[in-house]
Specification:
Blueprint lengths: L1 H24 L2 E5 L5 E4 L14 E3 L21 H49 L9 H38 L4 H5 L3
Helix pairs in contact: 2-3
Length: about 190
């Protein structure tokens, strides 16, 4: 009868050894979240996806009994429809922000061009205020007329670009249901 108990005891030990070995070889992971809180868990799959790259493998023996160990549930499977909606939203945001960025660049170029032409007009007019101001060469008059024509075009371009940035794009975005913060993020 004793041998039966020994056989049973040995069988139980052999059955328990793989579980013991698995527990001994189990990997534990430590990571910090955005708030700086340190977390420890028994599986890399339980580390939130955004923190996995920064998770470090730790020895289970180094995790004291007083440690705050999280045995969190595995991350929920990614909902493909939600992920697709998120990607579409990001693409829409990028599209509207790019549109505003290009409009702001256009406005900046128009303002620079307008400033250059105003300076050129001022330079031509200052030549006429020189001591020989009654002597206005024909080419100065022609240059002034050309600059003033260019100034008219530049003012129209600047006004149109400003209208796009301040009115047209924000109004179209509002009608399309775009959050106002998306456009205000554009520098």
């Amino acid at each position: 009868m004793r041998t039966g108990w020994y056989v049973l005891l040995i069988a139980l030990l052999f059955m328990a050894l793989p579980a013991f070995a698995e527990e001994k070889d189990a990997s534990w992971y430590r990571w910090k979240d955005n708030l700086g809180t340190t977390h420890v868990t028994d599986s890399l799959e339980k580390v939130p996806r955004q923190y996995r790259a920064g998770a470090e493998k730790v020895d289970p023996a180094s995790v004291g009994s007083d440690a705050n160990i999280e045995k969190s549930a595995p991350e929920a499977p990614v909902d493909e429809e939600s992920e697709r909606a998120l990607l579409e939203e990001q693409a829409t945001k990028a599209e509207w922000q790019n549109r505003m960025h290009l409009a702001k660049e256009r406005l900046a170029r128009a303002e620079v061009e307008l400033h250059k032409l105003e300076q050129r007009e001022s330079d031509i007019l200052s030549q006429w205020n020189a001591p020989n101001r009654f002597n206005r060469p024909g080419e100065s008059v022609d240059a002034l007329e050309a600059v003033r024509k260019d100034l008219d075009l530049a003012r129209k371009e600047e006004a149109d670009a400003r209208d796009q940035v301040e009115n047209v794009i924000p109004d179209e975005a509002r009608r399309a249901g775009i959050p106002p913060g998306w456009l205000s993020e554009v520098q």
